Amino acid sequence: MAVLLATATTLQTSPAWAVDPDVGPVNAQPGQDTATPVLIEGLREPVDAEATPADAARQHLAANRSRYRIPRAGSDLVPLATIAGTSGATVRLQQKHRGIDVLGGQYVVRMEEQDGRRVVTGTSGHYFTALATEVTPRIGRELAVRRAVASTARRLSDALTVGRIPRAEDGAAAATGLRGEAKGLVVLPRGSGVLAYRVTVRGSAPGTGTPVVEEVYVDARSGYPALQYSALRTMTAPATRSPGDAPEGEVADGPPGTPGSLTPETGSGTRLDGAPTSLDVAYDASSGSYLLADAARMRGTTGGLLATWDARGRSVSEASGRWPSGLSMFSSPTTAFGAGATDSGAVDAHWNAGQVYDYFKKNHGRDGLDGRGSTVNSLVGVTYYGMPYVNAFWDGTKMVYGGGDSEFKPLSADTDVVGHEMTHGVVEHTANLVYAGQSGALNEAIADYFGNAIDVAASGTPMSDPAAGLIGEDLCRTKTASDCALRDLNDGATTSKNFLGVSFATDNGGVHLNSTIFSGALWDMREDLGGTLADKIVYKALTEYITPVDGFTEARNAVLAAARAMGVTSAQQNTVKRSFNAHGIVPGWEQALGVDTDTLFGKLNTTDSGVGAGGGWWTASKSNDDGSEPYSVYAGRLDAKAGAKVISPNDGRYHTAPATDGKTVVWTAYGPSSVDILSRPVAGGPVRALYSSYTGVAGLRVEKGVVVFEEYDIFGGRHVGYQRPSDLAPVFTDGQKWDTLTALPSISDNRIAYAKLYPQGGSYRLGVEVVDLATGKGVMTQQLDEPVSLGQTGINGSKVFWLADTDESDDGRLTIMSSALDGTDARAVSDEHKPGALIASDLTVSQDAVTVVGETPGTQYRNESLPKLWQLPTDGSRRERVSCNRGEQSYPAAGAGRQVVWLDATTGSTDLVVRNRPAGTC
User: pLDDT tens digit string along 422-462?
Assistant: First the structure.
């Protein structure tokens, strides 16, 4: 995905392309990893005025093949949408490779018409010229779905939880609560291309019940999930913990049909701030009641509605990417809607939806979210399995608003929140920015910008007001606006000081974390140019220039080009440039990100593959520079005195998640029929196949030829196995019993440790078991309190360590536990109930230290709340940050003493880095 989100860094001029001397030189911005320019402006080239806009656009590209390097403009660019303007049209074309859609491959042609003459004025987008991959899959859809569901389940359930009840013995019940649907083949534009199945996984996260709508792209050659991110466009970063699993409600394919006889009426209600307001409602003759259905605004065109539905008592899991059965619109026997509609946030949702519709219609001539006047549905009052839900999202078809809690009103109570969610719908039907990484942060930034622009206009707030940049400030019940606002577009965030590099597993690659860098630049521009002009520039850039995988630099250039196309003055163009410059959004901004670590292996371009270390060596997986090739396993010395060496064979499989003890490297190989555990000596020699799984393998560790791992399946089963050099097949510690789960293994000195969920006395218990491989004897460690979940284990020559959660009411903080190898002397190295406890997710140990991946609790994502590495001596006497790098830190592996290697995302790519001692307090 790094290639999909790459930003071009230069703006070149090519006067030879200009055909009209009156318009000056043509500006052309070259693409990255493609010969096709990502932006051209300043053209005045005639095309056929009698042809359809789409045909004229393709004719223009075909006639200028030397400029665009598009060899098959008539066949592999398919018309996607044509937006008619007052003086011309903008055509969006979808790139196909041998008939298969290219993810993010979209090219835009802009045209003007006057006096029967049509000219092309510019183009932009991403057409990937290097694609050459075959498009015949080597795996079937069923395997792709199974791999996508298994990958999602494992990513969402690293901990072993009491609430996770294993499947029934006959395998009938799927403990994951996840299901996948294959949506067809796509080509990921990495290098020569990666053919993949797009699989949408829906349901609830194992152990937490968190709603899930994941887009997973499974390599159609090997079955490896090469790209994965959430499709829920949430107002804030989604919650990751809940009271536990809850049964899902019934769902339908879509909303029930619109009542046949609706008469527009004027109703009334009271907003949550106490203000009475008029409402556009409808009388339903079939029921004799009045509905929160605005049938007036689109009556003269499409007949579409702004409909507000009563989702009180429904869990968010029922409304994520689907429609709950039995849902009805808010209704009233009279035109006056009472306290129930007010308290749920329905009055606000309905009134605000009208404000947002009117804004886009009056200011930009846009009829609804899709521009075609389709019905806009809002679901109001959802809960989190009966608990408060403080969030809102657009799921691709509708808005969903949480009912709030003691601190926050229902999320529909602020115009900027409603404007934000509805703008996600506008973005989806225009630029369709991929909701991950930089393009996802742009998606959020544009939603914030328009949501807030609509809010300040509706409330009459001047741009000079210090509170004008706040989003969600009207949701506060007790706190001041600045204390509870969800974001501030005047926070001064910049790319050079505030950009946070994270994996797609965290906030979809930083879509909320980094959004105010770009939205802040747009907001500065609005403050200086005024709302009318700034809004038109941003809307024109969104609808006519920006394409799905644009990054910050490309979007900057799109906004500047849109301003120039509107004929703004030189002074106004300089204002736009200053706004972006002030936020560090300039060509090459990524080069200014600093680190305090030593890089062992850079730009790995891998997804969901960890790191191993031992015996003075490291091992990691790496793709090629454009991320198009299946991953290979490399190994190198921790002292960096020798270069990395390839360990795995080049056989088309994805070789991932390696581990080493300095003598041997073990790893998993994803192929079209199985996931295999392979091993090879560091010094070289034959590759040995140890075990084949038909579902998935994780948590590999190796010591003196003994390999330990965890096998998982799509039903929620997890089982730890180990294999000694003399074993012909693995020994599973739990016998692979259906009613027992074992997971998260570690190994040291011929002992293994792992977390275990097992039946006892009619219920299930959690514990950590230590097995002496020499004798086969296992002991359960003591527990200070009964845990509700267990995290990663670690073991050294004298102790075993693990993560434990004994209190679900403490925002996810975990205790770091230890005991003697015989299970006695259990103690808390770091207590979850004491100040400074971390939300820990991973652990690695040496003889001298315990290193954990931990986040500091907080309601908003920020640098301090990202996953960071923290190190403690084995007695827990102090705690230090391993590194002060700003990005996400993950997959740690302990070397000797206090040395740690890990994957660091600070620079925007994924690098293998090392520190020999902690950095301190940062």
Answer: 999 999 999 999 998 899 999 999 999 999 999 999 999 99
* Same domain, yes or no: 243 and 354: no
Q: Which of 147, 152, 282 is nearest to 220 (CA)?
A: 147
User: Taking phi first (over 0 means left), then psi (-120 to 50 degrees means alpha), and beta for anything else, what does residue 517 get?
Assistant: alpha
Pick the closest to residue 801 from 867, 894, 885, 721 (CA basis): 894
> Which residue range(s) make up the domain with 881?
838-922
468 Cα distance to chain centroid: 28
Q: Is residue 545 part of a domain?
A: yes
Q: Is residue 843 part of a domain?
A: yes
Q: Determine the residue type at 13.
A: T
Which residue among the candidates 41, 215, 421, 888 is catalytic per the annotation? 421
Half-sphere exposure in the Cβ direction for 770 (13 Å, CA): 26
- Burial of residue 130, with CB atoms counted within 10 A of its CB: 0-12 exposed, 13-18 middle, 19 or more buried: middle
Q: Are residues 513 and 552 in the same domain?
A: yes
Query: Can you tell me the distance from the alpha carbon of 218 to that of 186, in angstroms, rounded to the nearest whole number?
Result: 10
State yes or no: pLDDT of 12 exceeds 50: no
Residue 667 corresponds to which amino acid?
W
**Does residue 283 share a domain with residue 362?**
yes
- Please check whether residues 560 and 587 belong to one and the same domain: yes
**Catalytic: which of 420, 512, 583, 655?**
512
Contacts 24+ apart (CB under 8 A), 280-284: 280/306, 280/350, 280/354, 281/332, 281/335, 281/337, 284/259, 284/331
Cβ atoms of 394 and 233 closer than 8 Å: yes
* DSSP string of 231-247, one letter each residue: --EESSPPP---S---P
Instruction: Give the other-Cβ count within 10 Å of 365's Cβ.
Output: 12
Q: How far is CA 778 from the centre of its chain?
A: 41
The full 3-state SS of 443-462, as one line of letters, equals HHHHHHHHHHHHHHHHHCCC
Domain harbouring 486, CATH code:
1.10.390.10
How many domains, the chain?
Answer: 5
How far, in whole angstroms, is CA 565 from its chain's centroid? 33
Domain boundary among 413, 429, 445: 429
In a domain, 136, yes or no: no
Where does a domain end: 250, 277, 303? 250
424 is catalytic: no
Please check the confidence at residue 295 and state whether its pLDDT lies above 50. Answer: yes
Residues 569, 448 share a domain = yes
Predicted pLDDT at 522 = 98
CA distance readout (Å), 461 to 111, 454, 457, 464, 766: 37, 10, 7, 8, 55
Buried b (16+ CB within 10 A) or exposed e, 880-909: bbbbbbbbbbbbbbbbeebbbbbbbbbbbb
Say if residue 183 is in the same domain as residue 233.
yes
Residue 481 resides in a domain: yes
User: DSSP code of 895?
Assistant: -
User: Are 208 and 153 members of one domain?
Assistant: yes
pLDDT, position 817? 97
Same domain for 425 and 438? no
Count of residues for the chain?
A: 922
By the 8 A CB rule, do 750 and 738 touch? no
pTM of the model: 0.83
Confidence of residue 491 (pLDDT cuts 50, 70, 90): very high
What is the C-alpha to C-alpha distance for residues 835 and 855, in angstroms, rounded to an integer?
13
Say how many C-beta atoms besides its own lie within 10 A of residue 689's C-beta: 11
DSSP 369-419: TTSS---EEEEEEEBBTTB-B--EEE-SS-EEEE-B-SSB--GGGSHHHHH
Q: Give the position of tokens 């409808």.
A: 282
Per the annotation, the verdict on 420 as an active-site residue is: no
Cβ(511)–Cβ(877) under 8 Å?
no
Q: Which helix (H) or strand (E) holds 508?
A: helix 507-510
Instruction: Give me 265's structure tokens.
Output: 């009426």
